[in-house]
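Troubleshooting log. The previous structure file for this entry was overwritten by mistake, so regenerating from the original sequence record. Sequence copied from the archived sheet and checked twice against the printout by T.R.
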Amino acid sequence: MLVGLTLLFCGVSSWVAGAKPLVLTEKDSGRTVNVTVGQSFVVDLRLGAGQHVIAPEFNQEVLALVGQSLQSTTGPQGASTRIIYQFVVQQGGQTDLVVDAKGSGKKGGTSKPLLKIKVVASGGGESV
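Regenerated output below.
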């Protein structure tokens, strides 16, 4: 019986370890996302021509920004740019995560949200 439970636990652990990471895009805007303390997730956003990203806004007690990258490509369809942020959940709580973009040129003075989600982190008040 104990061996069976151990094998079951090992199988569940490997399934969880092999689970795909949570990736959020513009399509997730408006959603509520449930995460756990210690979990990491990625925000992958595409920028339009002439757009510049404003630093993400979030509660730094709940989330930590642990990485970011900017990827530009040029192809037959033109140039495209992606910005990728990696977050880790530090403690339980709630926060809005907002990433705005600002355009360049005459209309560059106003920003518009690329992504706005509510993050609900469970796992108690303990910090990671």
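Confidence is low (pLDDT under 50) at residues 1-16. Archived copy saved in two places this time.
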